[in-house]
């Protein structure tokens, strides 16, 4: 058995083994398997996660590195991966992601007020999205669009 990588962050312990990320210990629940591609048609990106201790700050500071398929829309693909990591039964979704003059404009649909759960919750979510977007060299700032309650307490 050969392990590719081991990640340890406050929220979970994950091991990459045989082309899957296996989340071994997570406060969210049981083991999770996230398939990874073994070919050169992938790109490694950072997906920012919420911290386990929010007493100090309401910003997301932890991340995992994942392989996603190479495409013409890596920003959109990375954000969709982040959203799929969250509880996606709430209808929260990315509608569009555009970059113009180094500004990423991210439009979301949030029909069930998922992003509005208190100041710390909305701060963590907006930080996760913003930091995931800012990792791309063509993005210098992020602008959110969507319902008026998007990322509001």
Describe the protein's architecture and organization.
- The chain is 18% helix and 39% strand.
- By secondary structure, it is of the alpha+beta class.
- Strand 3 and strand 4 form a beta hairpin.
- The strands form three sheets. A four-stranded antiparallel sheet has the order 1-2-3-4, with no helix packed on it. The protein has a three-stranded mixed sheet with strand order 7-8-9.
Topology overview:
Blueprint: E1 3-9, E2 12-17, E3 20-25, E4 32-35, E5 42-49, E6 62-69, H1 74-85, E7 93-100, E8 103-109, H2 119-134, E9 141-145
Parallel strand pairs: 8-9
Antiparallel strand pairs: 1-2, 2-3, 3-4, 5-6, 7-8
Distance from N terminus to C terminus (CA atoms, Å) equals 47 Å
Structural class: alpha+beta
**Sheet with the most strands, sense and barrel status:** 4 strands, antiparallel
- What is the total tally of β strands? 9
Strand order of the largest sheet: 1-2-3-4
Helical content class: 10-25%
Radius of gyration: 16 Å
What is the approximate shape? globular
Number of helices: 2
Unreliable residue runs = 1-37
- What would the average pLDDT be, to the nearest integer? 76
Observed structural traits:
single chain, 153 residues, alpha+beta, 9 strands
Summarize the structure.
The chain is an alpha+beta fold and 153 residues long.
